[in-house]
Amino acid sequence: MRIRSLPLAVMLTAIGTSLALGGLVAAADTGIFQARRQRLAAAIPEGIAIMQSAARNQANLYEFFVPNSDNHDFIYLTGLQTPGATLVLCPGSEEYPEILYVDAEPGAVRSATGIAHVYPVKNLMRDLSNAYTDYSQLRYTQRRFKPLPSEISRVLYNDGGPKVIYFNYPRFVNLDEPPPERLDLARRIAVFSPKYELRDLADILDPIRMAHDEYAVTQLRQAARISGRAMMECMRSTRPGLTEDQVAALFDFACRYQGATRFGFPTEVHAGPRSLDEREDRPVRVLRAGDLVTIDAGAEINHYTADIQRTFPVSGTFTPEQRRVYDILKEAQDACIRLVRPGVTMQDLQNEALRVLDEAGGYGKYFFWGTSHFLGMEVHDHGNNLAPLVPGVCITVEPGIMLPEFTVILEDDVLCTATGYEWLTEFIPREPDEIEQLMQKMGIVDAIDLE
Ligand SMILES: [Mn+2]
After folding, report:
1. Per-residue pLDDT at 136 exceeds 60
2. Distance 382 CA to ligand 1 centre (A)
């Protein structure tokens, strides 16, 4: 998805529904989330981690609002989408390495997550309060009759040194808004004693979360497959006279028909010439023969999203000039995709796209945005944009040429592997001849009898 800014009102209407245990995972999947928690625990050098699920996000002021951003870390580690829950990781403890506080029936959550110690959320403040008593101050009786908080206290005990607590701070900061209620816990911890050292858990979690495990890769492949097939349906159905919104509706329908219930971002269809300073609220356009249309969209599967773009002619046939520019862009995208492997940086990909575009006739100056971003639970996923790619990282490759007359953009999803790359969206037609042939076929629009 491209960089854009939405008015705050639009962002806030997009807040997703959080189901009380609506997101319970199948028991067979618990091992996946357990392995993730163990990976995180192994990376925590000292202290404990407190991770809360979020009722709502802070808005991302740089770009668009993804309703689940702040919850993705919690879902990543538990498989649960449930408000008012807190996961406490206590890596130094054999008895209580994982403790989960939930606003749901603990027994059901225990069997759904495989976490042995699940308690009602009302216990959280009491347990933590007891745990914050310095371990050296605890008497034998207290250790015996309050084993859980005593054990957290023992793990936190640092012989008078700082007691380190990793906390999942909001992913985005908006100083204009009141801080999320859940931050109250961090604030309270901080004011009670200078012994507590609060650190951002994201620093530890991001490198783990961005190198996708096999489960994540499976979801990304499926999201790419469903999105790609929806894109092909849109190619079959597109014709002059449809509106941009109708094409977007077709894409969304085709995804939902295939079982995707959510999207990584709102489907965007753009017909005709475009410019960087175009208003978000411009009137919806009708597709006209001679124009190009670009679809930018991605279905979400089990909280992992695709992000794809194809540009094709409304009439079903590229003009010679459109085809010439399209081929240059395709060559630049090919070069970038072939470059993906461990050690390559985002800047390398940017340089490669600009090099090919420039060598093909100075088209680099018509490419205004970044070639690649991380892809995962977020459409623009969290990660270190300065670090070299590592196996398991998924990125988009989305160069474009924005001319006054028309715009061509292609976007594919590419997984960095140990030896190179896996091109998740390679099956979606990209050759002009292939696209033109597909557009000759019947689409579902042919059967729709609606105004
Ligand atoms: Mn994108």
Report:
1. yes
2. 13
